[in-house]
């Protein structure tokens, strides 16, 4: 089960970051693969010699010591400095001994007792010449040092298929693609761990430990009552509204507060359309603008801000005076009212508490739009409502700041219902 979840997470991660993963993988494959063309070609030639033990060696050595004789004496003889010096002379070259040792490799087979001399060079002809020369010098040296003629060259050096052994371009491309894929995932994981944006429902639920009520694409501030019946925004808000209605009925609740960490997260867009969605579901709904410092919702509903919440709290009018009908059936609006210098104090008064109580008697649903949580007065209002909805901006809401904001709400025991992810690329509309 855990393995399945890990595979699902990896798949979701690829879907969200596939452009970055594909780009990095392609780039590394291109760079690594074409790097192979800059590496000089290398060819390999092989020459075989057979070694026959002398009679006295066969008598003196028990089974197994013959092997040691081949591997330690004859094989070592091919890398002897004297042999390599003679190879240089025979080839009329000035290779250094260490360079020659890197170019030559010796392999032995115990049955039959064969030594294969392998030579590498940039040219197939040079590799063949080096292998054959070393075989001849090795044969002559064994006669001199061992006083026996027991080394026989059984095959001249050849280069198989005239193909270079390095670089293997296909392997370069394959290995570079693998490195690119792994590197892209490392980049994504670092981004997810240290530069994390809450841009998906899975991430938000896992990190915030709160249910995701809905996911919305980017919008330009439209109202859902003006959209066709099958529009993605309308369907999204109707789904959110239905889920919230079920919660509110269970808790016999009416007031919902919508807030976010900072301006620009989409709090106004979400709260406005949520109130429209409730009204379209035949719920008598009132939208209350409690953003007393920067009241702007009245412009959206095309009303003035001359009378509103502050007017009621200051005992300048009754609740019926501040309730304004809108163009949307069943939806009413209460503006913030004239801007005051002490909004925090106004929201802490008994009159504001009384306002919410009176609205509960008059409406089925009350949507309260507040300041972002950077304002202290917002936390005071959370204790006066039945449920709080937190709006996350999928483009800018970072984990640390969001967690900090949620913790503030938990400290004051705010009735958190869940989060709504706004401006998400994972929404249905973004995928079309």
Short note summarizing the structure:
The chain is of the alpha/beta class and 432 residues long. It has 18 helices and 12 strands.
Core attributes:
alpha/beta; Rossmann fold; four-stranded antiparallel sheet; eight-stranded mixed sheet; Bacterial polysaccharide co-polymerase-like; 432 residues; rod-shaped
Set out the fold topology.
Elements: H1 2-35, E1 43-51, H2 55-60, H3 65-78, H4 81-91, H5 97-103, E2 104-110, E3 113-121, H6 124-146, E4 151-159, H7 169-194, H8 201-208, E5 212-215, H9 232-251, E6 255-260, H10 267-280, E7 285-289, H11 297-300, H12 309-313, H13 319-322, E8 324-325, E9 331-334, H14 343-346, H15 350-362, E10 365-369, H16 376-382, E11 387-393, H17 399-411, E12 416-422, H18 428-431
Parallel strand pairs: 5-12, 6-10, 6-11, 7-9, 7-10, 11-12
Antiparallel strand pairs: 1-3, 1-4, 2-3, 8-9
Helix pairs in contact: 1-7, 4-6, 9-10
């Amino acid at each position: 089960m855990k393995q399945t979840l890990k595979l699902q997470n990896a798949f979701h991660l690829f879907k969200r970051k596939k452009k970055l993963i594909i780009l990095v993988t392609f780039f590394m494959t291109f760079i690594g693969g074409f790097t192979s063309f800059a590496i000089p070609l290398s060819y390999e030639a092989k020459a075989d010699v057979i070694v026959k033990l002398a009679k006295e060696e066969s008598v003196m050595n028990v089974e197994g010591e013959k092997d040691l004789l081949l591997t330690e004496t004859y094989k070592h003889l091919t890398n002897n400095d004297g042999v390599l010096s003679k190879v240089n002379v025979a080839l009329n070259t000035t290779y250094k001994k260490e360079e020659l040792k890197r170019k030559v490799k010796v392999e032995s087979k115990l049955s039959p007792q064969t030594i294969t001399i392998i030579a590498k060079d940039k040219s197939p002809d040079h590799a063949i010449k080096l292998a054959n020369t070393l075989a001849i010098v090795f044969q002559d040296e064994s006669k001199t040092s061992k006083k026996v003629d027991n080394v026989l060259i059984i095959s001249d050096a050849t280069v198989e298929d005239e193909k270079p052994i390095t670089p293997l371009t296909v392997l370069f491309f394959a290995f570079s693609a693998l490195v690119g894929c792994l590197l892209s995932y490392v980049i994504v994981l670092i981004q997810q761990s240290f530069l994390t944006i809450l841009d998906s429902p899975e991430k938000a639920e896992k990190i915030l430990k709160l249910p995701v009520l809905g996911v919305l694409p980017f919008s330009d501030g439209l109202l859902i009552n003006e959209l066709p019946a099958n529009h993605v925004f309308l369907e999204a808000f109707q789904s959110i509204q239905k889920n919230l209605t079920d919660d509110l009925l269970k808790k016999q609740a009416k007031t919902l507060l919508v807030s976010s960490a900072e301006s620009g997260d989409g709090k106004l867009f979400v709260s406005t359309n949520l109130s429209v969605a409730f009204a379209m579901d035949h719920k008598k709904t009132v939208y209350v603008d409690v953003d007393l410092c920067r009241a702007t919702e009245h412009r959206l509903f095309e009303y003035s801000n001359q009378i509103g919440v502050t007017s009621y709290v200051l005992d300048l009018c009754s609740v019926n005076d501040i309730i304004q009908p809108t163009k949307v059936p069943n939806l009413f609006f209460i503006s913030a009212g004239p801007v005051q210098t002490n909004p925090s104090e106004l929201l802490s008064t008994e009159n504001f508490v009384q306002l919410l109580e009176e609205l509960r008697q008059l409406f089925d649903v009350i949507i309260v739009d507040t300041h972002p949580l950077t304002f202290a007065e917002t936390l005071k209002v959370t204790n006066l409502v039945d449920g709080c909805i937190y709006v996350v901006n999928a483009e800018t809401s970072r984990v640390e700041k969001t967690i900090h904001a949620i913790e503030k709400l938990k400290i004051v025991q705010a009735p958190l219902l869940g989060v709504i992810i706004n401006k998400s690329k994972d929404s249905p509309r973004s995928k079309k």
